[in-house]
Amino acid sequence: MYENLDAYVQRLIRESTPDRTVWNIEKIRQGKPASWNYIDGCMMTALLAMTEITGDRQYADFAERCIDWFVDESGAIRGYDTAACNLDDINEGRVLFALYRDTGKEKFKKAAQFLRGQLERQPRTAEGNFWHKAIYPNQVWLDGLYMAQPFYALYEREFGKGDYSDILSQVENVRLHMRDEEKGLYYHGYDASRKAFWADPVTGRSQNFWLRSIGWFAVALADLSEILPEGAERARLREIFAELMQSVDRYADGETGLYWQVVDQGGREGNYLETSGSSMLAYAMLKGARLGILDKEYAAKGEKTFRGIVDRYLSFTDGELNLGGICLVAGLGPENNRRRDGSYEYYISEPVVQNDAKGVAPFLLCYTEVKRLA
Questions:
Q1: Distance from the CA of 29 to the CA of which of 20, 143, 201, 237 falls in 20 to 30 A?
Q2: For residue 321, what are the CA distances in angstroms to 6, 60, 245?
Q3: Exposure of 90 in the CB half-sphere (CA atoms within 13 A)
């Protein structure tokens, strides 16, 4: 079925426009207009990787059309809400650097500068980590490490002073406050103020290990390990990355290589093998092995997970290829949404969908790593 994957992505592109992408299931279900968002951002990153590995420009050309539609000549981003202080909205900016190099359009550089300024204004916890959003005061989510830190590092490399100390400090804080020492896994969220209804009043941590949040963190570490130049900071990030991947490997399903929605509770009633987080961990393992951070056996482990996803969740329905098994969304709060309490019951209750970019994009990134092995 691998030979059909390119056609699958091309179909998704044909059915999409910059103001309505078919892989953004949340926007479609909510009936909301297009906005600059992390879901499309993940897909843009994957499309650029597809062009890099296949040489086919149609993927990168669509990404450029999308970013062109949102960014005006001054570098302003259509509909961007600066007051929201939403780390998710930084993520799409990571493609600006490649597009600027490819096209020379100054507006892409200006947009990157705007987003870097947004990080300067981002509120921080007492320990120095970015808040996830203004509506989540003093909260650090694993998701946010992927949303902001690779962009931050790319900016420092391309246009900044090459100072990565703040990035490493934020990762170290996450390891200190969000890692379970016994299991080696990271909790979804941490409230530095210990005031959120979902947070443990002593540790500030959420209750469970949500797969996709750990996946986001793993991909962030894998990407940062490639972006940062050689030196002590990159070496330390690689140590933290390798430590995480060795820990999560223990929780893979033996038969399929996939991982569970609630990572450490495989086989519990209601739990399921989930596509997006499994793709992220497989990508991280494949990339980590390629970069020499992980032992070569991790490339085989990652490929096993990828093949497991293909066998279990990639299928023909109505004559077309579709990717299923994707948790639509999960979060913690805010205060007026206490259903999102970080409990086991909450994580297994969220909708499972197909063809959403939060699953499709990491699956494609994983695919590009598998193709590098050929």
A1: 143
A2: 11, 22, 30
A3: 29
Cβ atoms < 10 Å from Cβ of 337: 11
The string of pLDDT tens digits covering residues 285-306 is 999 999 999 999 999 999 999 9
Q: Is the pLDDT of residue 361 over 90?
A: yes
pLDDT on residue 1: 56
Secondary structure element (H or E) that encloses residue 140, with its range? strand 139-141
Please classify residue 158 by burial: count the beta carbons closer than 10 Å to its beta carbon, then call 0-12 exposed, 13-18 middle and 19+ buried: middle
Domain ranges of the chain: 2-373
Tokens of 65: 């059309």
Q: Which residue is catalytic, options 143, 191, 223, 356?
A: 143
Out of 1.25.40.10, 1.50.10.10, 1.10.1740.110, 3.40.50.300, select the CATH number for domain 2-373.
1.50.10.10
**DSSP E strands: which ranges in 288-371?**
314-317, 320-323, 326-327, 352-353
Q: Is pTM beyond 0.85 here? A: yes
81 is catalytic: no
Cis bond leading into 334, ω under 30°? yes
What residue type is assigned to position 243 of the chain?
E
> Of the ranges 233-237, 307-311, 316-320, 363-367, which one carries the lowest mean pLDDT score?
316-320
